[in-house]
Amino acid sequence: MSGKCCAGGGELMILPCSGGSNVGQLANQAAVELTCEGFGRMFCLAGIGGRLSGFVRSARDVPVLVAIDGCQIGCARAVLENVDIPLTHYLVITDEGIEKNKDFDLQRADIDCVKAAVKRVVSRSGQDGRGNGLSRRR
To answer: Smallest Cα–Cα separation from 31: which of 77, 68, 60?
Structure first.
C-alpha cells in the first residue's frame, strides 16, 4: 500500500479489532478501505493494548475515535477501557446482522455494510471522518 493511500483523515481514528474470525477481518478490511478513501485513519489497536505510551497518547489526543469490534466479546472496547480512553463511537459488526464464522473469504457486500455502518455511527455526532464536525467529548 502506498503512503498516498493513507494520507488525510487525521481527525478520525479508526480502531478495528482485527480478530481471528470473519467479522474481525471485516473490521480490519473496512478500516483499511475507509482510510484509503480519506474517511478517517486506521490506527494500531495492538499498540494501545500493549500500553505503548505514544500509541495511547495518540488515541487520547485524537478529536474523534471509532472502535469497531467484530462481535460481542468486545476486544477493542476492552483495550480502550483498560487504558481509560472514552468510547464515544462504537460498532459491533454482528449487531449489523453479519454472522461470525471462520470463513476468511470476505464478501464485498459485507465489507460495504461495515463501511456504511461505521459512517453511520460517526455521523450521529455530526462528524464526517474528514475532520468536519464535533469533537470527541472527554
So the answer is: 68
